[in-house]
C-alpha cells in the first residue's frame, strides 16, 4: 500500500474528505518525524514503538571496486511492532 492508497482508505473509513485525510496522515507523519529528530520515542499502544537507533562508525567495502572505506556513525529510525499488531499479522493456529 502506498501513501495515496492509505489516504484514500483513511478518508473512506472515517467518512472525511480526501483533503482532510491527507492533512491528518501528513500531520501524523510530521509529528512522529519531529519527535524522532529530538531523540524521543513514539509509542502507539497495541501498534508499536518508533525510536532512534545509533549506528557506530565502521569499516566497509565499496562493492564496485572492493576498496576499503570508512562509514561514519549515524542514527536510523527503528520500529518495534506491538503485541496486538504481531498477533494480527501472525495469528496462532487452533488445534
TrEMBL record:
Gene Ontology terms: cellular component: cytosol
Gene Ontology biological process terms from the UniProt entry: chromosome condensation
Listed Gene3D superfamilies: IHF-like DNA-binding proteins (4.10.520.10)
Recorded coiled-coil stretches: none
SUPFAM superfamilies: IHF-like DNA-binding proteins (SSF47729)
Pfam families to which the protein is assigned, alphabetical: Bac_DNA_binding
Keyword Nucleotide-binding applies: no
Keyword DNA-binding: yes
MF (Gene Ontology): DNA binding; structural constituent of chromatin
InterPro entries: Hist_DNA-bd, Histone-like_DNA-bd_CS, IHF-like_DNA-bd_dom_sf
Keywords: DNA condensation, DNA-binding
Membership in a protein family: Belongs to the bacterial histone-like protein family.
Entries under PANTHER family matching the protein: DNA-BINDING PROTEIN HU (PTHR33175), DNA-BINDING PROTEIN HU-BETA (PTHR33175:SF3)
Name of protein: DNA-binding protein HU
Species of provenance: Rugamonas aquatica
Biological classification of the source: Bacteria, Pseudomonadati, Pseudomonadota, Betaproteobacteria, Burkholderiales
